[in-house]
């Protein structure tokens, strides 16, 4: 985002997991027969994409989800459409200009694979302040938490971390998401951590932080119990 719509990104996620299970092992074996493919771990850029992999791609057999301040499904986002319209109307012109300038500079067909945090933080904050992040995210059923939890009956263990003062992903939204997951899937181990700070609070943190060490122990506890990808 914002180079691609979220629905297109989700389609790409589904294609990736289908490719990883069907074609990737044989492609690697054909070109590099001396290499043993390690399918025991992977990483997703963005907490929302990690969750969507677990929710919408049961064939991926995700072992565990580790995600920080994941973006919200629209049906648990505390910022409602009326508030979005109000933000658009009342946000300062210079804040809209940040978004407009970035969008105007996107080359047709451009693909951005990743941007390490906190790069583009100014753009993120402008998208939130103007409500224009919803233009890219949409309101389709597939973007709802209700839909996501109906696709996969068996969810993996989850470690979710959230900043209490997050100005981009409101804590109240992930509080509600966690509540819904626990209500619908009480059997799923879910470690929800709330720490002081804004979006990206965890960037300087290491395993010497008690909350991070506790989360790592949670991951170790469940990692070996799950099946491998292939």
Can you walk through the features of this model?
The protein is mainly alpha-helical and 230 residues long. The protein is 47% helix and 7% strand. The protein has 10 helices and 3 strands; from the N terminus they run αααβαααααβαβα. Helix 1 crosses helix 3 and helix 5 crosses helix 6 (121-130). It is globular. This is Putative alpha beta hydrolase fold-3 domain protein. Keywords: Hydrolase. InterPro entries: AB_hydrolase_fold.
Please describe the structure with a list of short key phrases separated by commas or semicolons.
10 helices, mainly alpha, 3 strands, three-stranded parallel beta sheet, 230 residues, Rossmann fold, 7% strand
> Roughly what fraction of the amino acids lie in strands?
5-15%
User: Major sheet, described briefly?
Assistant: 3 strands, parallel
**CATH class value of the domain at 6-79 and 141-223:** Alpha Beta
Distance linking N and C termini = 30 Å
Mean pLDDT, rounded to whole units?
85
Order the strands across the largest sheet as they lie in space: 1-2-3
Oligomer: single chain
Shape: globular
CATH H-level superfamily of the domain at 6-79 and 141-223: Alpha/Beta hydrolase fold, catalytic domain
The CATH topology of the domain at 6-79 and 141-223 corresponds to Rossmann fold
Content-based structural category: mainly alpha
InterPro entries: AB_hydrolase_fold
Organism: Phaeoacremonium minimum (strain UCR-PA7)
Protein name: Putative alpha beta hydrolase fold-3 domain protein
Keywords: Hydrolase
């Amino acid at each position: 985002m914002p180079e691609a719509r979220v629905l297109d990104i989700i389609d790409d996620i589904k294609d990736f997991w289908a490719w990883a299970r069907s074609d990737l092992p044989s492609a690697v074996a054909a070109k590099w027969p001396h290499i043993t493919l390690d399918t025991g771990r992977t990483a997703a850029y963005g907490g929302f994409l990690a969750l969507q992999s677990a929710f919408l791609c049961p064939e991926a057999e995700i072992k565990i989800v580790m995600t920080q301040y994941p973006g919200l499904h629209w049906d648990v986002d505390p910022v409602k459409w009326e508030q979005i319209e109000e933000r658009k109307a009342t946000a300062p012109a210079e804040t809209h200009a940040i978004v407009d300038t970035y969008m105007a500079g996107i080359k047709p067909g451009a693909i951005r694979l990743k941007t390490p945090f906190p790069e583009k933080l100014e753009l993120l904050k402008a998208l939130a302040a103007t409500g224009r992040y919803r233009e890219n995210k949409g309101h389709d059923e597939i973007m709802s938490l209700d839909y996501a939890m109906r696709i996969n009956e068996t969810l993996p263990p989850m470690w979710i971390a959230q900043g209490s003062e997050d100005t981009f992903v409101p804590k109240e939204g992930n509080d509600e998401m966690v509540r819904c997951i626990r209500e619908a899937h009480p059997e799923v181990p879910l470690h929800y951590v709330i720490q002081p700070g804004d979006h990206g609070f965890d960037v300087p943190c290491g395993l010497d932080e008690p909350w991070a060490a506790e989360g790592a122990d949670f991951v170790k506890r469940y990692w070996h119990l799950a099946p491998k990808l292939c």
